[in-house]
Design goal:
The structure is a homodimer. Chain A is about 50% helix and about 10% strand. With about 325 residues, chain A is of the alpha/beta class.
């Protein structure tokens, strides 16, 4: 297919169009992913996460520079958790990255979906495949916000970077959301601010209690001074780049990389089962009017959700050779 | 069943044990929920959400007081998003609520799950059913953190309260996560702090652009002064209580309550389908070793996740009378 060929050749317009199809959840997108899949698995995927306002985009911009200096191609995916209700968020702060627009070895795209946050989680995996098939050697995935999104990125990335800022009071929040445990590299941005020492101590303490053995890698903590002095900022970003390299070497030398790839594949298969089985089933129930009548009996408390779900299982599954919970 | 009878009679030990079963994801819990379901749908469910440290627990404690003053029974569910990786978070700040421990009309329980955040989302619905079947007239559900959790609470609650604090820089974050759109009542806590006026203006501006018509209810903004003066704090909490009453009256008078109940039932059925069909299917694939061999072919790029998922659909579904996407 011409479209597939173009994406593989790195054509920006085709890739961009394809990501748009993924965002819109078009069934055609799935067919394209099937064709692209054999050509994926080559890129190194780096997740960059943290609360809004910590300076992720600035660091991503700096990392693009570091990567390009080494002559490697780079893809950037800025994941934008569009509000699940209004469906209208716009990503504004990509302007800084504009300076890379003329570089054919840099592809930057933001990713948003209308509809559920779950939809976005699925779209991320497919969009990464596109950048991977384009031949980008390193893919930076920037995720905004905190919560499930950040935990999901661990399922896609080889290396996860968590950006924090001193004195923002977001430390506890981050811990709560389970992000601390998935980060391979901690970056304290704006480290000339008050509270850096305390933040560093907090992270270290956290790591001591919670961190499981991760292929022998002990998460590193890097500080970046504020952008007010570009030269100082650059030194900080370069250090982050070296840490990424270190982590990757560690993944390879301990063979822990296979663990990560297995997790990634498992996550993707899980998402595909949901897309190919669970969602069509729901759509069928809705379009046939069955869902509406189920709603009625539920509203009248004539039956309960679990009993209904078990009936659905009986009606649509061939044999229940996998056990379904029965009444006691 | 004696256990069911005890829960319905409001027995604290049985209810607590049942919530423990839900937390552990025991199949017995599902059977109990089936029996309790006909006796649910009577309680009014109030969600209280916001970032960590904004004072949600203190407000919940105040609301318990306001509700008890009116002679109504109250259940409190403090949802604790246990880290999906370490599985060990502990909710510490329930101490304040201890003063209600002697009151048989107050039932307070925190809810955590080992395993995925998705598991927690499902547990919340079932745990609410338990408190509802116990006969608690008002159920306060406090959710910690930001993200999917807060959006989910809208699927359970009649009224959603969002607690914010001036100058914490969490406004943008909250907007990003789509929480602004689901809140019926905004509470600015610690409103004697600097930045309250700005925060109020920000909320108002946000509401003007994003808020869809919600049964004629325009979200209210209530300010609570810091707890340093308990009498002043109490006045603020009472005002929040009146706002909850106003919102409920509005739901009833516009019949918008049916809309909310329908959404709640739909969400619950969806979760039950996942629990009764999707999860057993995955478990079967894993225990039979099929999942492992699928992983192998994926790792070797011999096939793609979507093709595998479509094969699973063909193998396990009776007829594909609901269409499954095919190749182009």
């Amino acid at each position: 297919m011409e479209f597939i060929r173009k994406i593989r050749a790195g054509d920006v317009r085709s890739a961009s169009q394809m990501i748009g199809m993924i965002e819109d959840g078009l069934p055609e997108a799935r067919a394209v992913i099937k064709c692209l899949f054999p050509f994926t698995g080559r890129a190194r995927i780096i997740g960059i996460t943290g609360s809004p306002g910590v300076g992720k985009s600035t660091i991503v911009d700096g990392l693009i520079e570091s990567i390009r200096k080494r002559g490697k191609s780079v893809g950037v995916l800025a994941v934008d958790p569009t509000s699940p209700f209004s469906g209208g968020a716009i990503l504004g702060d990509r302007i800084r990255m504009q300076r890379h627009v003329g570089d054919p070895e840099v592809f930057i795209r933001s990713l948003a979906t209308r509809g559920s946050l779950g939809g976005l989680a699925k779209a991320v995996g497919d969009a990464i495949h596109v950048l991977d098939a384009m031949g980008k050697e390193i893919i930076l995935v920037e995720t905004v916000g905190t919560g499930q999104q950040e935990v999901d990125i661990a399922n896609h990335a080889h290396t996860v970077i968590l950006v924090l800022v001193p004195g923002m009071g977001d430390e506890i929040q981050t811990i709560k959301a389970g992000i601390m445990e998935i980060a391979d590299i901690f970056v304290i941005n704006k480290a000339d601010r008050e509270g850096t020492r305390k933040l560093k101590m907090d992270i270290t303490a956290m790591l001591e209690v919670s961190r499981a053995c991760n292929g022998g890698w002990y998460p590193s903590i890097t500080q970046i001074e504020s952008i007010s002095d570009p030269a100082v900022f650059e030194i900080g970003v370069e250090e982050v780049f070296f840490k990424i390299e270190d982590h990757y070497k560690q993944l390879l030398s301990t063979n822990f990389i296979n663990e990560r790839l297995r997790r990634k594949n498992m996550y993707e298969l899980n998402a595909a089962i949901s897309a190919c089985i669970f969602e069509p089933l729901l759509e069928h129930l809705i379009s046939s009017g069955k869902f509406a009548s189920m709603m009625e009996v539920l509203m009248r408390r004539e039956t309960d959700p679990y009993t209904l779900a078990e009936e659905i299982a009986k009606n649509y599954f061939k044999t229940c050779n996998f056990s379904i919970e029965s009444d006691t």
